[in-house]
Design a protein that fits this description.
Length: 302
């Protein structure tokens, strides 16, 4: 995995080709209620118009939500690291594409900035585990601040966290083979299928709100596990009711979450719920039970 050239488009537009359009409900774009008003003599006076729970929740999600856009700082950081990745991947590099929460439209500034899938053709005598650690070592050799996460190598680039996900293209399917540092095993899955499921769910606002709550509570709740849990909790719930739906997810976490087995929709052999220990699940359920008693949404997300 050393210097050479790799073919493939790396322009801003190529990097974002095929990404789903953001699909947040229209009510977040309605004019916000006036908290202050101008009196007849030009002075500013308090207004008695109050934010509804939906308006408050939407404003908090908007505050932290990262929009996937070719002109965003997150995209620029990812785009600028492409030449480094091409140098590392050399002739084995198949593609560099946005991925994870960023392209699903569920990324928030409190946790991460942008995920990048680095797709490779098989390298002789190198399992995906060796590829993973090779990427980490190479980034460190470039004098970049890097550390490993469950399936990615996080690099600090111009004050942005860029999570690099090295993956082999699965020769037997259209999916990917990743390395899970937590288990030490190769994982056969389909990242594109994950993106399609979440990006087209219409539940991105609820997922973002749940991620904000997770960060405020300091909980260990892996993002993909969280996203799949939110989708299950909201089955049958109406769209466009952000505050009520957020509370529905909290009730699900409080009452059902610990007992439910969650499988990877791209490969049922992968048990996503195994990403947390029983103790980790219990901590989430306990925090959710405390949260459902709060009628004041401002005490849950801010």
């Amino acid at each position: 995995m050393r210097p050479s050239s790799a073919d493939g488009e790396t322009s801003s537009h190529a990097f974002f080709r095929g990404m789903p359009e953001p699909c947040f409900p229209d009510y977040e774009h309605r004019p916000p209620p006036q908290l202050f008003r101008n009196s007849a003599d030009g002075k500013t006076e308090p207004s008695f118009t109050m934010l509804t729970n939906d308006q408050y929740a939407a404003s908090i999600v908007e505050k932290y939500h990262i929009t996937a856009d070719s002109g965003s700082p997150q995209h620029e950081a990812a785009d600028e690291i492409v030449p480094v990745l091409k140098k590392w991947g050399a002739k084995h590099l198949l593609g560099i594409t946005p991925s994870g929460a960023y392209v699903k439209n569920t990324a928030i500034t409190l946790s991460s900035d942008v995920d990048v899938l680095v797709s490779l053709s098989p390298v002789p005598n190198m399992e995906i585990k060796k590829i993973f650690w090779s990427l980490f070592e190479f980034m460190t050799e470039q004098n970049l601040t890097a550390h490993t996460r469950d399936v990615s190598v996080r690099v600090r680039w111009k004050d942005r966290n860029v999570d690099l996900i090295p993956a082999y293209r699965d020769p037997h399917t259209s999916g990917n083979v990743l390395f899970d540092k937590k288990t030490g095993a190769a994982v056969h899955t389909d990242v594109a299928q994950h993106v399609h499921l979440i990006a087209n769910s219409g539940r991105q606002q609820e997922i973002c709100a749940l991620k904000i709550w997770r960060e405020r509570k300091g909980l260990d709740f892996p993002s993909f596990y969280l996203e799949l849990t939110a989708l299950r909790a909201l089955e049958g719930e109406r769209f466009g009711r952000l505050a009520d739906n957020f509370q529905s997810v909290l009730r699900y976490l409080a009452n059902k979450f610990e007992r439910v087995v969650v499988r990877d929709p791209a490969n049922s052999d992968n048990i996503v719920s195994n990403d947390l220990s029983e103790q980790g699940k219990r901590l989430i359920a306990t925090a959710a039970r405390e949260a459902v008693y709060h009628e004041d949404l401002q005490k849950l997300i801010w």
